[in-house]
Model the fold of this input.
Amino acid sequence: MDDVASIFDRYEAVRHRLPSARFGADTIDVDSLLDVSPRVDAFVFDAFGVLNVGETPIAGAADRLDQLRASGHAIRILSNAASYNHDAATAKFRKLGMRIDPDEIVTSRDAALAGLDDRLWGCIAAPSDDLSDIPAAARRLEDDRTAYDGVDGFLFLSTETWSAARQAMLSESLARRPRPVVIANADLVAPRDFGFSLEPGHYGHLLADEGVADIRFFGKPFAEVYEMVEASLPGIAPERIAMCGDTLHTDILGAAARDWSTVLVTRDGLFSGADTRAFCERSALIPTWRLPRI
Done:
């Protein structure tokens, strides 16, 4: 999956595993979030493709966050990044020049860890991840085939060092003894400076295609992360929360399933250079608003 058409097609192929939602008939094109701010009390932002691309901040994003916060809007970042813990997520956005407090961030890792039971989890993680926030026994999985058979469940956090050979070891171990699989990042891909990276969701759906039954996906579009954001915004009606994201099948679909308003951001993320209208029509995923950058 190295272009928007193939990524879109794969999301459509796994659509039966995603939430369902109702949508309006049309999308309204706007120039900036200031055009819709009177209709919104809380803006929730995807990271990749909306605030940053890889390690590069998107021009104007930090200023817009400050502007919206100053005008009385609540700000949240809702990210499917699971490669690092909550403190590291906060530090990353500050490094990008964005004034973000820890309680303004919700990640798919947060949701996945909250759902773990007490068993020995085999962790597929980045080398820099010390796994210190895992609330259960954890063992890092790499190239030792016997280690896969020795754990009681699998926690997929990062694809940084993942390979086809390791995926085969995981699949074969599950075939020998089925166990729970937790996918802590439901994305199929993420936009990077160099193109698209394959994310844990891609490998999770490959396992599901093979018939692995006990598999749970965390992060957009699945409900847990949206519920965590809602819990942090008491008293705000769902339609007064606006999800700003670059991906129809994650950001837009998941938010619409919670009856939030939605904003498709088109210039820098998945649909960069593409006609989003055609993809919206094909998928029947219709954002409330659309704009190039926030």
Q: What stands out?
A: The longest strand covers residues 74-79. Residues 117-217 form a domain with the Rossmann fold fold (CATH 3.40.50.1000). Residues 222 and 254 are 6 Å apart (CA to CA).
